[in-house]
Design goal:
330 residues, Rossmann fold, seven-stranded parallel sheet
Length: 330
């Protein structure tokens, strides 16, 4: 199978190249086009416009602007990259008959900034907050409008092959939660920095749970979408197990060979400190407190059912442990 991966030089792209080639022929599409081991040839977006990109069987669209946790990126940059490039590559996909599968990498943040209830499923009305999630949902809606426009009339925007107005093609919109793996700890930076320095974690009284996506599980799912006859649609992606922050700290300490220091300071007292932080503009304020202590659990039941999987191959704690070890040089 000939597979075109956009954003091929990024973390996920590099891991997919290693995992999928061989037996597949991998072609790349990126801002720059240097040679890459495992990739037959990498093209630029200008090459796409010039008609130089060869015919392929499948496209994995990873290229995009990642979430800027420091909120320093202008909103128009997100839409130019996350929405604009998706429009360009999806139009190319529709115009080339040999390309049969399109995998769009979106994000759970396009569905919800906060999870109401026990876990987030595909049966949710998208309510993104901020330009990152908003640009991603705009990209999703463009794909659905072209492929299965009737689905946009539904609250959840879910679609199937029966909705498709384009024959002979499959479209998968993937919404992964935080992706991590050896060489890339995602947004674990803050917590890793605190724990690695031996600083006690003061929020032990909060038992919030969050979902993560181990790169090994993501690789297996993408391989399944390429090789199996899974139905088109929107799919959430995460590990089987959600972890509390306390459990995550235990995993980090285990990987580093350190003892975990978790303080169970009463919630009311910590919330009071956060309100003081609002006034004095301290690092710990109410907004950050909410993000550090809220639940964000994502269901992966739909993607597992579509691929005939009973469980993901990598356990959440195992995947996180390997990620942390890579940053500790172990």
């Amino acid at each position: 199978m000939k597979v075109l991966i956009t954003g091929v030089h990024g973390f996920v792209g590099s891991n997919l190249v290693t995992y999928l080639a061989p037996p597949n022929e991998i072609y790349g599409l990126d801002i720059i086009a240097p040679e890459k081991e495992g990739v037959v040839k990498t093209y630029s977006w200008d090459d796409l416009d010039a008609g130089k990109v060869p015919e392929v069987d499948a496209i994995i669209h990873l290229a995009g602007k990642a979430h800027d946790t420091k909120n320093q990126s202008a909103a128009d940059v997100y839409f130019k990259v996350n929405t604009g490039l998706t429009q360009k590559i999806f139009d190319w996909y529709l115009a080339h008959p040999t390309a049969k599968k399109f995998i769009q990498f979106s994000t759970v943040k396009s569905a919800a900034d906060r999870v109401e209830g026990d876990f987030l499923t595909e049966e949710c009305i998208p309510t993104p907050v901020g330009p990152y999630g908003e640009s991603k949902i705009a990209a999703e809606n463009y794909i659905i409008e072209k492929f299965a426009p009737e689905a946009l009339r539904r609250p959840f925007h879910n679609f199937t092959d029966e909705d498709a107005v384009v024959d002979g093609k499959k479209v998968y919109i993937m919404r992964p939660c935080m992706i991590h793996g050896p060489g890339n700890k995602g947004n674990l930076n803050l917590l890793y920095g605190v724990v690695s320095k031996g600083i006690p974690w003061p929020l032990g009284a909060f038992e919030n749970r969050r979902s993560f996506t181990s790169i090994g599980n993501l690789q297996e799912v993408i391989k399944g979408l390429l090789t199996k006859d899974a139905p088109s649609g929107i799919y959430h992606m995460g590990d089987d197990e959600a972890l509390s922050t306390n459990e995550l700290i235990e995993v980090i300490c285990s990987a580093l060979g350190k003892k975990a220091h978790i303080w169970n300071i009463p919630r009311g007292l910590m919330n009071g400190f956060a309100k003081i932080g609002d006034v004095l503009r301290l690092p710990l304020n109410s907004q950050r407190m909410q993000k550090l202590t809220e639940n964000y659990v994502v269901s992966n039941a739909k993607i597992k059912a579509a691929l005939g999987m009973t469980e993901m191959p990598v356990r959440a704690k195992d995947g996180l442990r390997e990620t942390i070890k890579s940053f500790a040089g172990k």
